[in-house]
Amino acid sequence: MDLSTVVASSPSYGSKAVDAYKKAAATAATVTAYAVLARGVARELLPDELRDAARWAASFLLRGGARMRVPRRRRTFVIRRYDGDGYGDSSLFEDASAYLATRVDPHSMSRVCLSRRRSRDDDDEDYGAFGYCDGDKEGGGGGGHVMSMEVGASMDDVFEGVEFTWTSMTNCDGHDRQAASLELSFDAEHTDMVLRRYVPFITASVEDARRRDRALKIFSCDNGGSWRGSSYHHPATFDTLAMDPELKGSIVADLDRFLKRKEYYRRIGKAWKRGYLLYGPPGTGKSSLVAAIANYLRFNLYDLDLSKAESNSTLQCLLTSMPDKSILVIEDIDCCFSAITRSGPEKSAEQNADERPPDAPPPPKGQGITLSGLLNFVDGLWSTSGEQRIIIFTTNYKDRLDAALLRPGRMDMHVYMGYCCWEAFKTLARNYFLTDDHPLFPEIRELLSEVDVTSATVSEMLLRSEDVDVALQGLMECLQEKKQGKEIGEGGKA
């Protein structure tokens, strides 16, 4: 092919190149237009979560399958404090503030608000509600400090493996006043967890802390049919209680189960209460067990003397005026109703005197009181007048009680407080002398298995000396004397 032929054909190659370029540009413009249109449609029709997933998938493909974190939407709940102006309830703000105060770490936060803690002796049900008390971990009589977030500060909290961010804020309300608030921020996908589990967990934790930290009171009724209270500082706890460890553990487990069963009682249609009958010889620790239950639950005690109630109406007023989370105690219930049946007194005074034990107090003066009146509160129409109540009856003579008092639903758990056993003695020895072993222990253990002696008697013998050797020697001699007296008595009967 000569040069003239090549030159003549070159214009056709140029025109083809121009046409190809025009087609490519037109195609690119069309694709761009469709992309813009598709993006607009996606914004209008597709939810945010689906668009985020699509962008992540596109980025994943464009980068050759590199692992990337999916961008997550954040959500914020604002919890405000209302200063008694009728515009809202501040209880959730107070609960959240109290909860966060227990999570403050002064070593990791640059700014921390420090305030003085109120005294435990203050007449305040909410003592201890506002958080961690530095310097008062042993439960003394107050003092110490409470730490909380400063305004503008943030802190993280982890619940069930999910991280939440709390921020303390101050904003203007609708009346141009400064109002404190807390902002809770989290990944939007955990919204249901926050509403159904996290917030209820916070309120329950704070409520439990308030209950365990409040100062206890004991109330007694006067002749006018009203309650009078005073401070209650009984030192008995389940750790120091001298009784069978297995029985002690079963009582604690029953109390724990009772506290957690609010929704259960509501679902089955029963009043949220629990009844305990403590029975056994005098001096076996029934009153100490009542005190240990009160200290464990942090419920106030209401000691009811039925002789102060002159009628069922007075009794009803006393019992229905008791608040929730309280313990009703009626001691020596067999003596209280030795002369009164369900419908009223039926026996003569001489018959009642013959049947009562020699050391029993006289029956109630109020002849208008009936057993039915009390039962109506325990398991009748009045039983729904409050929630989370404990009812405790004590007696030295269980066999003298009306069967109506003993059935489940009234006295749910019967606790026999027997004579001092070996395990109970070891608890007393540990309480008094901080010892778990002694050369006299084997002989004392054998004597305890042969004679009946109350925990009160053993405690009295241990109190007679601060020297463990002297005290245990005196106890052993006492047990030996009881054993000899028992043998003599059995020999005389023979």
TrEMBL record:
Residues 346-365 are annotated as: Disordered. Residues 272-421 form the AAA+ ATPase domain. It catalyses: ATP + H2O = ADP + phosphate + H(+). One of its GO terms (biological process) is response to stress. InterPro entries: AAA+_ATPase, AAA_N_dom, At3g28540-like_C, ATPase_AAA_core, ATPase_AAA_CS, Mitochondrial_chaperone_BCS1, P-loop_NTPase. Its cofactor is Mg(2+). Transmembrane segments: none annotated. Residues 346-358 have a biased composition (Basic and acidic residues). Pfam families: AAA, AAA_assoc, AAA_lid_At3g28540. Gene3D superfamilies: 6.10.280.40, P-loop containing nucleotide triphosphate hydrolases. GO terms for molecular function: ATP binding. Keywords: ATP-binding, Magnesium, Nucleotide-binding. The keyword Cytoplasm does not apply. Belongs to the AAA ATPase family. BCS1 subfamily. PANTHER family: BCS1 AAA-TYPE ATPASE. This is AAA+ ATPase domain-containing protein. The lineage of its organism: Eukaryota, Viridiplantae, Streptophyta, Embryophyta, Tracheophyta.
